[in-house]
Amino acid sequence: MGIRKRARALVLTILSLTRNPNTTQLESCMNCMDPCLKVFEKLILVIGPVCVLLVMLGVSFVVYTMYCYIVPILQKRHPIIFFSEVLYGHWLLVNVVFHYYKGVMTKPGSPLPAQRIDESLLEDGWSICKKCDQPRPARAHHCRLCGVCVLKMDHHCPWLNNCVGHYNHRHFMLFIIYIWQAVLFVMCTSGNYALSVMVGSRSLAHWLLSETPFRFILALFATNPELHTRTIGEVTMVMLLFFICFGVWIGLTILGGWHLYLISNAETSIEWNDNRIMSMEFSRRGKVFVNPYNYGLKNNWKLFLGLVHNRNIFRHVLLPSGHPPAGSGSNWKLGYLVKAPEPVQPRQGYQTTTDNNGKVFPV
Ligand SMILES: [Zn+2]
Ligand SMILES: [Zn+2]
């Protein structure tokens, strides 16, 4: 093809995308971005294993630095405080490792072939996937990276190198919650050391001890980093630890806060966007859109954490637990699992009354 023909084809392509009366501007933009998205998706597939390796190296670095440099400083604290810190730190570490492992290794779940194919499937929210050409239940979406439909798909996570869906969503969220706490714990325990290096010879804890009314409480926690000799290697490692944790903690706060909001409203990341569009469409028609999977804050969390069938927070959330989520991921009418059944109204004819002569007859 000559250069002139190529140029004409390019102009026609641009015009068909921008002046086509059958497509909206948003669709045109999405079409233009499609090649970029494909390159981005390929990149995520390639960097997925690298991200998993980075997480493992990051956690190993934090654990190593804590044991080598921070624990010896913490040992100088009150024995009860030191013991509590060691217990809390190890509880967080066990949960972080467990939920990360389960998040990476657990398949999010794909739709099973429909038992029946008729109109009742549409009533249950089923649809046909354009890519797989197969029926899929409500809340399932096609992941272009994995090449399959995923039950209750939230997003494809490069840090897990896995899709986040029905069967591993809980592990993903608990991993974020536990690692957020762990990073905060590391910052608090190494903060005094890092600040004393930055501020100078006088540590923050010392200033607080001598200047504020909290000195009696802080006396339990305070350590004086000046009491032991610092080496260049130690200072470098602790400062690196503190600043890496600070950056990661900011990112985790934003990511975790967003997912806490979504789960509280029984929405996935994909549904959040769809529901906003539906809300606008409903309000344009003078109606109010109601998310059919929202059973209220408490019930949404009970269903999300799988706290049904007599499971409890202590055993199934605070301790590592690999229990399956509530429901099969194909049927989302789960209200019966968390809400008490409606009281049965007495049927008319079963209630009786007595007249003045003692004769009994139904009301
Ligand atoms: Zn599909
Ligand atoms: Zn995926």
From TrEMBL:
The chain crosses the membrane at residues 42-67, 79-101, 172-195, 235-261. This is Palmitoyltransferase. PANTHER family: PALMITOYLTRANSFERASE ZDHHC16 (PTHR12246). It catalyses: L-cysteinyl-[protein] + hexadecanoyl-CoA = S-hexadecanoyl-L-cysteinyl-[protein] + CoA. It is found in: Membrane. The keyword Transmembrane helix applies. It comes from the Eukaryota. It comes from Oopsacas minuta. One of its GO terms (molecular function) is protein-cysteine S-palmitoyltransferase activity. The DHHC domain is required for palmitoyltransferase activity. Keywords: Acyltransferase, Membrane, Transferase, Transmembrane, Transmembrane helix. InterPro entries: Palmitoyltrfase_DHHC (IPR001594), PFA4/ZDH16/20/ERF2-like (IPR039859). Its EC number is 2.3.1.225. The keyword Membrane applies. GO terms for cellular component: membrane. It is a multi-pass membrane protein. Belongs to the DHHC palmitoyltransferase family. Residues 125-273 form the Palmitoyltransferase DHHC domain. Its main location: membrane.
